[in-house]
Amino acid sequence: MSIPPKKTRKSGPQRTPDAGARQPERAFLVGLDYRVRARAGEKRSLLSSGARAAREAAAASSSVPKAPPVPEFSAQESLAELRALAGSAGAEIAGEFLQRRDRPDPATLIGRGKLEEIAGAAASASADLLLFDHDLTASQQRNIENEVHTRVIDRTQLILDIFARHARTREGQLQVELAQLEYLLPRLAGRGIEMSQLGGGIGTRGPGETQLETDRRKIYRRIRHVKQQLENVRRIRGQQRQRRESVPVSTVALVGYTNAGKSTLFNALTQADVLASPKMFATLDPTIRAVALPSRRKVLLSDTVGFIRNLPHTLVSAFRATLEEVQRAALILHVSDASSPLSAEQDAQVERVLKELEADKKPRLRVMNKMDLLPAAQRDSLRDDTSTIHLSAAKGSGISTLLERMDEMLEADRPSRVRLRVPQKEGKTLALLEARARIYAREYKDGVVELEAEAPESVVRRVRDFVVPEFAPVEIPGAPLSETITRGRR
């Protein structure tokens, strides 16, 4: 994990690292389960902190008709997700602890008594750091570190660390750096006695300026610089998008919870070699590739970063330039892990992020992935409908059905059926029709090729000089593409 060097501890058994190999850091996980105090006539329930906030928000709007409850992660499920995040960051799990409380402790989040118990358990397990499944304030993190005498990392910092490990392009690295700086800025206070030293002297800080103020000024300066570079990236990406939009090529965006199989599906649709890994957040840098639909239309498919529960707002803001591909997409493919017992909870989190991006009203197709991991009886009982496709990207099953459904839902550059008379010497035109159109009939007469074909509107415009005058493309509204016919002009 790309975290500052660990502190040394005298307690606990010592581990001898192998020569030439870096030992994975041992993490002790701490989860929290807040009990919601029962109202009159209600049962006491156990909810995670995120679920409690959703419950309170729903109770505040009692005059509005009740909507179906939004699935929430339980504390155990949230801790299991933290375990997966720690594995993606390269940590080794040394142990875990789930604390149940009525409310968070303002000083240490979990209370000093439990903190001493956790400190002893972490020391006996030779843990190098504590990972909290909760966001910590600067004072809480400092108080906990003073008690346990080891590093303490909260959930947001862990996600930022994973993002920093996986960012490859300059744009991705800038986005991660911006999120890290915005996370660090409010946590500078109280990081040690050196932060409160006054500076003076010729050519150094002005007299009376604290180290804290100097560090803040440096971070603000760096944030402005990174934002300016990201704005340049956003401007270039906007210019590229304008060039793409000048031709009738639709963009389809893949979205979904992290590790739902988006990159595997992207590779299956585009024959690309994007990294597909079971680790969380393996894909950070956006990738766009062309896909040919059954009607021979071409669309651009965009692979985006995966979403997660309580995605840090700094990440959403930093990756806004990347996520603009989702906002401008003509169709969104929402990829879900059909084999996950938390599929409903994960889908609810994706809905929240799409709403924050103001993309929740866009045309959408639900793609239930990883069907090969389901039992045969359950797999056979599932059926596709107008809004849902079941497939296995890893096995390649259901890909053709998905392409056909995408073809039906996309409106730009719709195909139409035409009759053409093309001279044989027009090799480029014949090659274009062969590559971009469905040819149903072909006949050679006196150096001319007569064709009956179904082609996208952009292709028909390019070959309009060869369209038989008495025929014009006619599209039946709402009918499948195969029912598009030609009628003679009278």
Could you walk me through the main structural features you see in this protein, from its secondary elements to its overall organization?
- The protein is an alpha/beta fold.
- It folds into three domains: 117 residues, 3-Layer(aba) Sandwich (Rossmann fold), CATH 3.40.50; 161 residues, P-loop containing nucleotide triphosphate hydrolases (Rossmann fold); 74 residues, 2-Layer Sandwich (Alpha-Beta Plaits), CATH 3.30.70.
- The protein has 15 helices and 16 strands.
- Helix 2 runs parallel beside helix 5, helix 5 packs antiparallel against helix 6 and helix 6 runs antiparallel to helix 7.
- It is elongated and about 95 Å long.
- The N terminus and C terminus are likely disordered.
